[in-house]
Amino acid sequence: MTRWPDPDARRRGTLAVLAVVAAWPLLVLAEFKPWQLFDGGNLAVMGGFLAGFLPPSTDPAFLSLLGRATLETLAMATAGTALAWVIAVPFALVMARSLSVSRIGPARGAVAGPVVRGLARGVMMALRAIPEVVWALVIVRALGLGPAAGVLALAITYGGMLGKVYAEILESVDARPARALLEAGSSRCMAFAYGLLPGAAPELVSYTVYRWECAVRASVVMGFVGAGGLGQLMDQSMKMLNGGEASMILATFLLLVLLADGFSAGLRRVLA
Amino acid sequence: MGPGSSSDGVEQGSVTVALLLSGVGVVHPGGRRALESVDLSVAAGERIALIGPSGAGKTTLLRVAGASLRPTEGRVELLGAGPWGLGAGALRRLRARIGAVHQAPPLPPRQRVVTAVLAGRLGQWTVGRALWSLVHPADTEGAHDALDQLGLADRLFDRCDRLSGGQLQRVAVARVLYQRPDLLLADEPVSSLDRATSELLVSRLVAQSESTGAALVASLHAVDLALKWFPRVVGVRAGRVVFDLPAGDVTPALLQALYEGDAVAAVPAPDGVAAATAAAMMCR
């Protein structure tokens, strides 16, 4: 024991114990029994399933289909993320507390400010609470099969995610430059552009690219419900038990994720 | 209240008032009182130094004067308007006429110097001009001239994180010169700088006030800088104005009483100003 015991030690210990106690029933509830994976019978079944994936299909007709589906998926993910960005940016600017003019003083409107921020937060929550695949299921009924439904579904859900995280990134960078600009009569948008953006840009960009990568993956699941792209192709291959085609599609995914990763790293380097 | 608590020693005549505080008190949300019944009147073109021990309330006073903190009690009038009665648009336009230099320059490290300086006029520019200026500087000449006054013109296109602390503060001063405000506020603008840079910055702020007719209110740790550059000196202690006098009337006894018991500044020796100055400068 030292002469200066850490006053926080007891609290930290309690939190750690509580976390374990709380996690245990959750694992039981989720029927988390990983050892079942390695039971003899299960391994053989999985092995048989995976063996069907080899060798990857290189049939020219399939490859041309794959190329088209890849383009469709990229277009869907890109258009969806772009629309999501358009939804997210104004909401993020409204939600970021460091851009609040009425908090300075506090001035008139200091009561309305938190209400407006709360409403914006609620809208973002509602948009992202419903998974994109559910939105896609609904929209497919209106727009018919094809990527358009996927684009809209992505825009809605990802708009909610981007808005929330953008606002949190803006609040995590040094607020003093923006505050100084607001105090010198600058508007909220300009305080963002000149005060927060320089510090937040790398985080904003890398999160946006990461979301785009997620959108590529999400488009698979949406493809299963008829929203086109690689997902729909994957669905067809799996239904026809064509493992070679499925593995080729998976390889394409790996490539796309690699591409997104390199793109993000490159952009961050440019901005740094 | 000490001797001459309000504005004696200053002729106001018909000159417009840049800053008027009457009976201003500030209690922070935690319940700590920072200012108590402060009366202060600053005419356009007037230059005032605020001195006093750390924690005396100088920063709070300057924040009230910059419309960035609403006082709990009393009346504030800035450039002829009561800021807290204004609508959002009018308050913005009023704030655009107030320029502040902070103790720590609030400049984003990844921003270029030219952009940081031009940001001084964001309150006056249209949105279109401000956005375009992010792509290509809208007034390189203006930024260059402001930086040139501070001997930093050669760093125009450098990024702020390539500059030293003293250079950053010079950029912050260049920004406020470029803003051309009618009320100039400086909160310990030179507290962490060497002697030569301190003199340069204070002299430039004073010159700006002389050439544009802006009122200048600066808080300073260095008592000798205050006495040298400012015709009027206001002593603040424990949230109150203790004295408000022409620089020539500030006596060693007054300074000793002002800094009495200040742990950092120690007690100034009886021989006065020089000792108080030395003590105050040791703060940093």
Write down the CATH class of the domain at 1-89 and 214-284 in chain B. Answer: Alpha Beta
Instruction: Indicate the CATH class of chain A.
Output: Mainly Alpha
Q: Give the averaged pLDDT of chain B, no decimals.
A: 87
Q: What's the tally of helices of chain A?
A: 10
The largest sheet of chain B is: 6 strands, mixed
How many strand segments of chain B?
9
Main sheet strand line-up of chain B: 5-6-7-3-8-9
Multimer state: heterodimer
* Helix and strand sequence of chain A: HHHHHHHHHH
- Cα-atom radius of gyration of chain B: 19 Å
Description:
The complex is a heterodimer of chains A (272) and B (284). Chain A is mainly alpha-helical and 272 residues long. Chain A has ten helices and no strands. Chain A has one domain (66-271): MetI-like (MetI-like fold). Chain B is α/β, with parallel strands linked by helices and 284 residues long. Chain B has a domain at 1-89 and 214-284: 3-Layer(aba) Sandwich (Rossmann fold), CATH 3.40.50.300. Helix content of chain B is 35%, strand content 21%. Chain B has helices at residues 58-65, 88-96, 113-118, 127-135, 140-148, 165-179, 195-212, 223-229, 252-259, 273-281; strands at residues 17-27, 33-43, 47-51, 73-78, 98-101, 183-187, 215-219, 232-237, 240-246. In chain B, helix 5 packs across helix 6 (165-179) and helix 6 packs parallel to helix 7. The longest helix of chain B is centred in the last third of the chain and has 18 residues, at 195-212. At the A-B interface, helix 7 and helix 8 of A face helix 2, strand 5 and helix 4 of B.
Give descriptors for this structure.
heterodimer, A: 272 residues, MetI-like fold, B: 284 residues, alpha/beta, 6-stranded mixed beta sheet, 3-stranded antiparallel beta sheet, 10 helices, globular, disordered N terminus
